[in-house]
Amino acid sequence: MSECIEHREFIPVAEVPAEMPGGIAIHYYIRWPGKAQEITPASLSQLMKNLRDGKWKNIFLCDDDCLEVNFMQLESGGGLYALQFVQDNGGGSGEESAWFSVYDPEHLDSEEETDIESADGQAVIYRGDATTDKETVMTAIEYFIHTGKLWDGIPWMKSWQEWVEE
Question: pTM for the full model?
């Protein structure tokens, strides 16, 4: 008989790059409901302005226009920001199919729900999976677009499931 075990690991802030890298590694975004849009050097500054100004409350970022594998997602509202990166969304298990999210240590094990309206209209976002640190979240998003990697200047909670035989 096998059992699914959920793992959690906390990745602390590491050394932060002195300046934002150039280039674009993540080429598509989508805002629900809508279609995938290409991220270009010309559109990147407007995209970030819309997020920073609060005009856009949600966004998915991915390097393919299907937005299915290795994507970053932001859901926000009421001064809270839930930022998550899903690695290998192919339905696998184990550490290679992990998801990373921002977190609030003071609410981490709380079942308190936020008032954030999820883009799909169904997901519940818990307070422990959100932060009030808007600028750090915006920097993490911009860094991800430029590099395709998670920014080390924000603490991440890494979670994954693994099937083990009893």
Answer: 0.90
Per-residue pLDDT tens over the stretch 145-160:
999 999 999 999 999 8
Give Cα separations from 121 to 32, 66, 67, 117, 124 (angstroms): 10, 20, 18, 7, 9
Q: How many domains does the chain have?
A: 1
* Secondary structure string (H, E, C) spanning the chain: CEEEEEEEEEECCCCCCCCCCCCCCCCEEECCCCCCEECCHHHHHHHHHHHHCCCCCEEEEECCCCCCCCEEEEEEECCEEEEEEECCCCCCCCHHHCEEECCCCCCCCCCCECCCCCCCCCCCCEHHHCECCHHHHHHHHHHHHHHCCCCCCCCEEEEEEEEEEC
Flag whether pLDDT at 95 surpasses 90. Answer: no
Average pLDDT of the chain, as a whole number:
89
Confidence of residue 134 (pLDDT cuts 50, 70, 90): very high
Q: Considering Cα of 30, then 145, then 159, then 164, what sign does the dihedral take?
A: positive
Domain assignment of residue 119, given as a range: 2-165
